Every structure is written in structure tokens, then in C-alpha cells.
Task: structure prediction
Amino acid sequence: MNLPNKLTISRFILTIAFLAVIFSQSRFHETISLILFGAASLTDYFDGKIARERKLITNFGVLMDPLADKILVCSAFIAFVGIHRIAAWMAVIVVARELAITGLRLLAASRNVVLAAEGYGKHKTISQITAILAVLVLMSYEEWGPIGKAVFGFRLFGKPWVSWFTPLAIWVAVILTFTSGALYLWRNRNLYLQDM
Result:
């Protein structure tokens, strides 16, 4: 098994660990959750980069890498609903978009059509990871003592700046998720409309 595929598998393991820790009541579980999610996000970046640079692209990687990404992001948004950090409808948009696009790609593959990734999709992924990291930082920065409070807790309009940034990051992620999904479904509508 090559290195990119090992990184992909590690993302599944890190996702499970992230979920176990975020719902635990252990000491510093918020900070540990942030570290685990950050590590999983880095594997997403490096497995693709290494696979392209070293020409280690495999069928396993083509299938499992995007699946690992979707499971990581959807798990985080669903977990945030469970711990009352975001509204349920926001998680529904994220999960529904990922399921819809995955279904569309499977339909395209069954007809020997390859649907390329679009720029909106990359921006969507970056915005989702930023939003998740922002929520985790907001949950955990006070555990880091004076340094955490100095960096993330300095006040802007009466409350810590991270308290302003996090809801904004969530809204941007949800809007980009919905928009990118709607555009992708619209541009490839011939794939599913011809069967109606």
C-alpha cells in the first residue's frame, strides 16, 4: 500500500477518534478534538499532493480519498448539532449536498461519463474545514491559558473576535456548500433528467 493510500486510511481512523473524543467529557477534550481534526485535514492535503507528484494515483485512492473527505466533514457537522454548536438544518444542507453529488457521480460513472471537480467544490471544502476549525478553536481556546486568550480572546465590539468569526465562517461554508451543489446539479442536469 502506497503512502497516499495510508494517509487516506489514517483519515478514517482520525475521524473515528475525533468523534469519540468530542463527545467524551475527558479533560481537554475540545483541544484534543481540534488536534485530531487538524491532523485529519492535513492528511487530506498531503495524500493528494503526494499522489500527484509521485504519480501514485490508484483506483483505491480515487474512490476512497473523496469518501474519507466527505465522512470527515459530515461527521464534524453532525457532531456539532449533537453538542448544540450549529443548527440541524445547516448540517442537513452539508450532508444532503455530499450525498447528492456522490449519487450524481455514480450515475455518471454508470454511463461511462467522468464528472470533473469544479472550482466551487474546492472553495466549498476550504470553507467547510475553516468553519469546523473555527468552531473547535472557539470551544477550546480558553483551555490554552494566557496565550490562547491573547491570540483568540482579544475583544472586538465587546466579545472575543473568534466569537464573531465562527458564525460568519459557518454561514459562508453553508452558503458555498448549497451554491456549489446546486450549480453542479444544474450543469449536469442532462444526466438525471433524461430518465424522468
Q: What stands out?
A: The helical segments are 3-22, 29-53, 59-82, 88-110, 119-140, 145-152, 161-187, 189-193. The mean pLDDT is 90. The domain at 3-193 is CATH 1.20.120.1760 (Four Helix Bundle (Hemerythrin (Met), subunit A)).
